[in-house]
Amino acid sequence: MDWCDDWIDRIFARESYAVPSSEFVDTLRRTNFRNTQSRAEWLAMMEIRNHDFFLLGEAKFDGIFTCFGLIPGAFYLTPNMGADDYTESTIHRSVLGINTNVPIEFTPPENGGGSPSKRRRQERSSGEDSVRSTDSGDVDYGHGFIFTQLGPLYAFTGPCDWEEARKTMTYDDIIEMGHWTATGFGVVAEIHKNGRAGAIWLIYNFYQDDDTDDAPIRRTHRPVFDQATKQQLPEIGRLVEGCQTTFTVAKIAENLGQLGGGKKFKIDLREFDERQLVRVKILAAGQGSHLVRQFIKQ
């Protein structure tokens, strides 16, 4: 049974191997998201294989200087509409689009009655009344972009401040022993018309797992308003504890290769309210196929 032992050893080695950061960057650079096979290989790497924690670098925002990183994952953000649409043209939800000209509006409830999930449904708007389905003529439509998800963003929050940690700890120790706090933002890579990844963005995640109804876990829109004061909750769009400025969309690099380790980056704020996230479909156009947001502003 030597062949069986060898086979098990190979499987164990493959499962225990963690994709290093350099391979993560190179695979993203090589992936053509217009190509089904290339897209599938990227998704398999993201969801099946193990990953190292990926250090994005350090940034100073709102007077707070710290380090940021991500845990690779392809399904952190959820579209506001069409989440369960499955057609021949729509592709998996690891690739989404953002309509920056379609704000998601909320109306604070008049009273605190009803269950939390019911109140969330009453508050939220998907933006569906202001959009239309796209066709091949919308390939070059602006007011947003298509992106692939890279994973949730984490901030270094201890055991000491970042200035001390960067001087006294190795990056391996920072990853292993540091306190990393989820920020509520997802890290995404913009996809160009040619199918290649480009700029790196942060998009706030307005959805959360909801298992309150004894049903399979699903995602629902997180509470936005304080039920008593009718004011927006202070943590919505807040990058780290202590920040006064909140935002929902920001650009941090022109490509993933500009980030990593001790590299510095700036957080270029672009949006301050929730913008509509939608599915993406692939359509024939001209000499080939193109990725198009499923819905755009009508």
Note the topology.
Layout: H1 2-16, E1 18-19, H2 21-30, H3 36-47, E2 50-51, E3 54-61, E4 64-70, E5 95-103, H4 116-123, E6 131-133, E7 144-156, H5 162-168, H6 171-177, E8 180-191, E9 197-204, E10 207-210, E11 218-221, E12 249-253, E13 268-271, E14 275-285, E15 288-293, E16 295-297
Parallel strand pairs: 1-2
Antiparallel strand pairs: 3-4, 4-7, 5-7, 5-14, 6-16, 7-8, 8-9, 9-12, 10-11, 12-13, 14-15
Biased composition (Basic and acidic residues): 123-132
Region (Disordered): 102-137
- What is the share of helical residues? 10-25%
Identify the quaternary structure here.
single chain
Q: In the residues, how many domains can be counted?
A: 1
Overall 3D geometry?
globular
- Give the N-to-C terminal Cα separation: 65 Å
Low-confidence stretches: 7-13
Mean pLDDT: 87
> How many runs of DSSP E, i.e. beta strands?
16
SS content category: alpha+beta
Beta fraction: 25-35%
CA-based gyration radius: 21 Å
Largest β sheet strand count, sense and barrel closure: 10 strands, antiparallel
* Number of helical regions: 6
From N to C, what is the helix and strand string? HEHHEEEEHEEHHEEEEEEEEE
Biased composition (Basic and acidic residues): 123-132
Region (Disordered): 102-137
Give an overview of the whole structure.
With 298 residues, this protein is an alpha+beta fold. It has one domain (18-297). Helices cover 20% and strands 34% of the residues. The protein has helices at 2-16, 21-30, 36-47, 116-123, 162-168, 171-177, and strands spanning 18-19, 50-51, 54-61, 64-70, 95-103, 131-133, 144-156, 180-191, 197-204, 207-210, 218-221, 249-253, 268-271, 275-285, 288-293, 295-297. The strands form four sheets. Strands 3, 4, 5, 7, 8, 9, 12, 13, 14 and 15 form a ten-stranded antiparallel sheet that branches. Strands 1-2 form a two-stranded parallel ribbon. β8 (180-191) and β9 form a beta hairpin. The longest helix has 15 residues, at 2-16.
